[in-house]
Design goal:
globular; alpha/beta; eleven-stranded parallel sheet; single chain; 39% helix
Length: 409
């Protein structure tokens, strides 16, 4: 009689399987830094559905059996998305129970220990954000925080109003003690005096905010940046609202530390501030309504090595593609430090691959821009010319065949 030996799969192998099954690319540190040009509304629209799907997968894994529960529980809340006020109390109760040892394995780290990312999207006047402070108290290792809370609207719902002081106070309390915070995104600047507190400034590397209102008589913050450990290297500036004076103050304080700046709805005034306040900037990303906004004045840039470009509006005409390549030619002649120009929006790359733009784009890249000292890349970091030749040529040939084929043949 033959005896069969039952060989168990080592826990390390299961860990790797669970990691692959629940992984959402570019959402956690350090991977997220590869896509930091997309931090903002567009990026969140892409990653948040993926985070929801991943959470459903994780929940299924921990319910399979006790062994899988013990192995997979730390993946369950690695990234938390709160998009409904009712979720706050539920998540808070779960995290606090585990912190108090309820349902946890003796000696194991509490569930909140494993959480690396928190996204909060709570809108409307009825939202109560205070319980979020209790949630944060259970998450000592948060590295990525995105806050979109307390948005109020006027009677004309198209006009956004400033967040009220109570909401700003909650946001300040939420991030005050996050000593491992690397990326912070908020709809409103939490500190009305414009100073990021030292408690997070020593770890914070990327700061993105849509509205920055630095006002006199704001909540007292910390002044004097001398002899402070400052890790801030990257800011994302959204110019949907005209907060130019506040941004000027902020850049005057922190610009010297920055190596990367992202400008959304780019305004030439901000480029002037960057040249004046950011002597160490090496990476710049410009988001414009369309490429025709890349005027000669707009392209008078500091000595950067990387330039990201993407459009936020319509890109339907031949003249738009001509504006892009005209801008690249200007950069070739005026910015010798430039090493990489990248089209960061996949939609822009896809449009150049269509029959309307393919032939002109390939011809320009092969001839007019062939001697550029910088690489011209697609959103994945591949050479744009190679991408167009691989993807666009079949589309062009297909159009060619349809144009001249006999419909009755």
């Amino acid at each position: 009689m033959t005896t069969r030996l039952r060989v168990g799969i080592p826990p390390e192998v299961w860990d790797h399987i669970f990691e692959i099954a629940t992984h959402v690319p570019y959402t956690l540190v350090p991977e997220i830094f590869e896509k930091s040009t997309l931090i903002g509304d567009d990026y969140n629209e892409l990653c948040r559905p993926a985070l929801k799907t991943a959470f459903a997968t994780k929940r299924s894994l921990v319910l399979v059996c006790k062994q899988w529960w013990h192995l997979a529980i730390r993946y369950l809340y690695r990234a938390i998305l709160i998009d409904n006020p009712r979720k706050i109390l539920s998540i808070c109760s779960t995290l606090q129970n585990y912190a108090n040892g309820v349902g946890a394995v003796p000696g194991a780290k509490p569930l909140g220990w494993w959480v690396e990312r928190l996204d909060v999207v709570i809108r409307g006047a009825d939202a109560d954000e205070e319980p979020l402070v209790d949630v944060i108290m259970c998450l000592p290792n948060l590295a990525v925080v995105s806050l979109d809370i307390g948005e109020r609207q006027s009677k004309d719902e198209s006009i956004l109003q400033s967040s009220d002081p109570a909401t700003l106070l909650i946001e300040r309390q939420l991030v005050a003690e996050l000593s491992r915070l690397c990326i912070l995104r908020s709809r409103y600047m939490p500190w009305t005096d414009g100073f990021i507190p030292q408690s997070i400034l020593s770890s914070l590397t990327t700061f993105a905010v849509k509205r920055m209102l630095i006002t006199e008589g704001g909540i007292p913050g910390e002044s004097g940046l001398e002899d402070r450990q400052i890790s801030l290297r990257e800011v994302v500036i959204d110019m949907t609202y005209d907060d130019f004076e506040s941004w000027s103050i902020f850049m005057g304080r922190y610009g010297i530390f920055l190596t990367s700046v992202h400008l959304t709805y780019c305004d030439n005034r901000y480029l002037v501030i960057i040249k004046q306040s950011c002597p160490n900037v090496r990476r710049l990303t410009l988001s414009v309504i369309n490429f025709s906004y890349l005027t000669h004045d707009m392209l008078s840039l500091p000595p950067i090595e990387y330039l990201g470009l993407n459009t936020l509006g319509v890109y339907p005409t031949w003249m738009e593609s001509e504006s892009l390549f005209s801008a690249l030619a200007t950069l070739r002649d005026t910015l010798p430090t430039l090493r990489v120009v990248q089209l960061t929006n996949p939609v822009d790359v896809a449009r150049l691959s269509t029959t309307h733009y393919y032939e002109m784009a390939v011809r320009t890249l092969e001839k007019d821009l062939a001697q550029c000292a910088f690489r011209i890349e697609d959103h994945d970091g591949n050479l744009l010319l190679e991408r167009l030749e691989a993807v666009g040529e079949p589309l062009y040939c297909l159009k060619y065949l349809f144009q001249f084929a006999d419909p009755f043949d």
